[in-house]
From TrEMBL:
Coiled coil region boundaries: 679-726
InterPro entries: NFX1_fam, Znf_NFX1
Annotated region described as Disordered, given as residue ranges: 1-85
UniProt name for this protein: NF-X1-type zinc finger protein NFXL1
GO-annotated molecular function: DNA-binding transcription factor activity, RNA polymerase II-specific; RNA polymerase II transcription regulatory region sequence-specific DNA binding; zinc ion binding
Annotated source species: Galemys pyrenaicus (Iberian desman)
Transmembrane segments: 745-763
Length: 767
């Protein structure tokens, strides 16, 4: 039922009935459906008030009574209840109209009577329209509640905590634990609002009739199989034809008085039109009396979209929504509605505010609203430096709140090298400078520093801007805090020189290696000379008993070794002057391999001490021998001395004289047996045919040459006839020599020289 205010002001609400002519059951009378507003049917009546609606209901009741004179008492009861509800609706509508009129009469005073009737009627219509306007179309939502309340989490397991009333709902993130609808499992999601989600697990469940079992989700335990019930009905003659149902099968549909589906006759199908009201509520079914539900209304009507901006002719059963997006602002006055085909009742804004609160630390979590956001509900602790004393302030005020004064001792670690600092109260900023004795162990001598602590000494800053003239004022000197090194130690320490020639007392800070300026004088490693360097540091070798022996820092003897070399070694000793025997020769000798192609490098000591077999192995390059066998092939042996063995196994191809027949044989067998391949009859026949073809081609070429010469002769004679006799001269035919005729002697001479050079090169390389 539509709201009462939808029927006010001449039926301008959304209830717009469309009446059509519906055929009756055969008496020639047509019943017209009437709506609550302006009728748009072909025979509809426009108007408002209780009479048309009551008449329509009465007519429908009468027509139904006429259609089923022998109907049951249930249909009469439904008609009576429908009349009662319609009567109540009319009473409420009349009361609302009376209240609206009373409001209009009270709003206008006696002075408004002077205005025209038209202005009065217009204003009254506006007031009536504004009376039924919803609250959300005029004002925005209320701002979030700033009060503090103590609430618990969604699952009621967490301890109650104080929160803003606008954000009192919170989650403890513990598992929910509530039993799900399946009755077997518990919710495993973290603490959440609202009902639990369906059970995600799978279990074996029976269908509603209990005939089949299948694995299904716990969230949907009720399911129907595809089997027909098949139980015997109470009549005892028929079986239930329903598919997998719950409960009793019910009475047999073929028992008792049976009527046609349209309830007009007591035959199975009366053959008349159905005439039932379709789902659209406007048109009636035009099919013949049939079983089952009526089809959807397919009559084409002109429909208006929900927002009222477009109209379109389309089937009655299809809803029409245009694609136009609403551009009205929502209650927050920041975001547009953007709904498609919006009827005007734009929903409240569902986006989060997201504006930064006044604390500049958090953002507003409320729904988008007008005006300023409420203060941040969080609190911040302002602590002293050590953290033992604190003050709780609202979030955002920690920047302007002074830290509380603390009476505890300063617990900061000392900034100097001491393990503890002088006692003082907790404070911000740097601690006062330390005045305890330094007592540092000096790195060089190991003595303790007796000066006061100088890790944070104040020194004057240097390198600052200097005044350029007397008109500039001198700036006050600036001091910076820095650590100063410990003063040098002055205790005398007896110290020996680098070369261990003498011992002299030196200040502790100056103790270190020094030279006495004498000559070193130690015996060098060659045991023939002494070190001539100035007194220097000498590293004593472990286990050495000779204190006069030169160390690695002493000079090295630069003279060459003059000792004799081993027999057969042509190289001198590569070491400078040294004691003892010379080391073995490690230089390499360059020798040619057996094939005289590759140069090999062999140790001098190896080649001089090797026997004949070892020398042959050292002179082998490990490559294939490059020499040619008498057959013309290359030797297959590795680089070796002497003549190559004649064991050529390489395959060669033999052909007949005409080159048609071809066979592959080993080279050594061919040379031993002198095998040859003769031409067969086919070869001779092919040779004869080839000779005949050549003779024919030569004959044709000769004939062609004769014709060409005859043509040239005739052309030449024709040219001679046109010349004058005094200018006639005998034509001289110039014959040009070819390159071979010009330079054949020179080419023969060059070839002879090249052959002589090649022969000389071969003879000398072989030797």
């Amino acid at each position: 039922m539509e709201a009462s205010w939808r029927q006010v002001a001449g039926g301008r609400g959304r209830a717009r009935g469309r009446a059509t002519v519906a055929p009756s059951s055969g008496n020639g009378v047509h019943h017209r459906g009437a709506g609550g507003g302006r009728g748009k049917g072909p025979v509809g009546v426009a108007g408002s008030g209780p009479s048309p609606g009551g008449a329509a209901i009465a007519a429908s009741a009468g027509s139904s009574a006429k259609r089923s004179p022998s109907g049951s008492g249930a249909s009469q009861t439904s008609v009576a209840s429908e009349l009662t509800s319609h009567r109540k609706f009319e009473e409420i509508k009349k009361a609302n109209q009376a209240a609206a009129k009373k409001l209009v009469e009270e709003h206008f005073s006696s002075s408004s009577e002077e205005e025209g009737d038209e202005d009065f009627e217009g204003k009254r219509g506006k007031i009536v329209a504004n009376t039924f306007t919803t609250y959300t179309t005029q004002t925005g939502p209320c701002p979030p509640c700033p009060k503090m309340v103590t609430t618990t989490c969604y699952c009621k397991k967490g301890k109650p905590i104080p929160r803003r009333c606008s954000a009192k709902e919170w989650s403890c993130q513990l598992p929910c634990g509530q039993k799900l609808l399946c009755g077997q499992h518990k919710c495993e999601n973290p603490c959440h609002a609202g009902s639990c989600q369906p059970c995600p697990r799978v279990s074996r469940q029976k269908c509603v009739c209990g005939k089949q079992v299948a694995e299904r989700s716990c969230a949907s335990p009720l399911w129907h199989c595809e089997q027909v019930c098949g139980k015997t009905l109470p009549c005892g003659n028929h079986t239930c034809e329903q598919v997998c149902h719950v409960g009793a099968c019910g009475d047999c549909p073929r028992s008792g008085k049976r009527f046609c589906p349209c309830q007009k006759s007591n035959v199975p199908t009366c053959g008349d039109s159905c005439d039932k009201v379709l789902e659209c509520g406007i048109h009636r079914c035009s099919q013949r009396c049939h079983r089952g539900p009526c089809e959807t209304c397919r009559q084409e009507v002109e429909k208006q979209c929900r927002c009222g901006k477009h109209t379109k002719r389309m089937p009655c059963h299809k809803p029409y929504q245009c694609e136009t997006k609403c551009v009205k602002m929502r209650d927050c006055q920041k975001h547009q509605c953007r709904r498609k085909c919006c009827p005007g009742n734009c929903p409240p804004c569902d986006q989060n505010c997201g504006r930064t609160l006044g604390c500049r630390n958090h953002k507003c979590a409320s729904v988008c609203h007008r005006g300023s956001c409420y203060p941040c509900p969080e609190t911040v602790d302002v602590k002293c430096n050590c953290g033992n004393t604190k003050v709780t302030v609202p979030c955002g005020r920690e920047r302007t709140t002074k830290p509380p004064k603390c009476k505890e001792q300063c617990s900061r670690p000392p900034t100097c090298h001491h393990t503890s600092q002088e006692k003082h109260r907790c404070h911000f900023g740097s601690c006062p400078p330390c005045h305890q004795p330094c007592q540092k162990v000096l790195e060089k001598c190991g003595h303790l520093c007796p000066a006061p602590c100088h890790d944070q000494a104040l020194i004057k800053q240097t390198g600052r801007h200097q005044p350029t003239g007397p008109w500039e004022q001198l700036s006050e000197p600036a001091f910076i805090q820095t650590a100063l090194p410990c003063p040098p130690c002055q205790i005398p320490i007896p110290t020996i020189c680098l070369g261990k020639h003498e011992v002299s007392p030196l200040p502790c800070h100056a103790v270190g290696p020094y030279s006495c300026k004498r000559v070193c004088g130690r015996t060098l490693n060659c045991q023939n000379h002494t070190c001539m360097k100035e007194c220097h540091k000498v590293t004593e070798l472990d286990g050495s008993t000779d204190k006069n022996k030169a160390g690695p820092e002493c000079l090295q003897c630069e003279e060459g070794c003059s000792k004799s070399r081993p027999l057969g070694c042509p190289h001198p000793c590569v070491l400078p002057c040294h004691p003892g025997e010379c080391p073995p020769c490690v230089q390499m000798l360059r020798i040619k391999c057996h094939c005289k192609i590759t140069s090999l490098y062999v140790g001098c000591r190896k080649i001089t001490t090797a026997d004949v077999n070892e020398k042959n192995l050292l002179s082998c390059c490990k490559n294939q021998c490059p020499k040619e066998l008498p057959c013309g092939h290359r030797c297959k042996e590795m680089c070796h001395p002497g003549e190559c063995p004649f064991n050529c196994n390489q395959k060669v191809k033999l052909r007949c004289p005409c080159k048609r027949i071809k066979k592959e044989l080993q080279c050594n067998k061919v040379r031993e047996n002198q095998i040859s391949i003769e031409c067969d009859t086919m070869c001779k026949e092919m040779k004869r045919k080839a000779s005949e073809i050549k003779e024919a081609e030569a004959k044709a070429a000769l004939e062609e040459e004769k014709r060409r010469q005859q043509a040239e002769l005739e052309a030449f004679e024709n040219r001679l006839k046109g010349r004058r006799k005094k200018n006639k001269k005998r034509d001289e035919v110039t014959v040009e020599l070819t390159l071979w005729q010009k330079y054949k002697y020179y080419l023969l001479l060059v070839c002879a020289v090249m052959v002589a050079v090649f022969a000389w090169y071969i003879v000398h390389n072989v030797d």
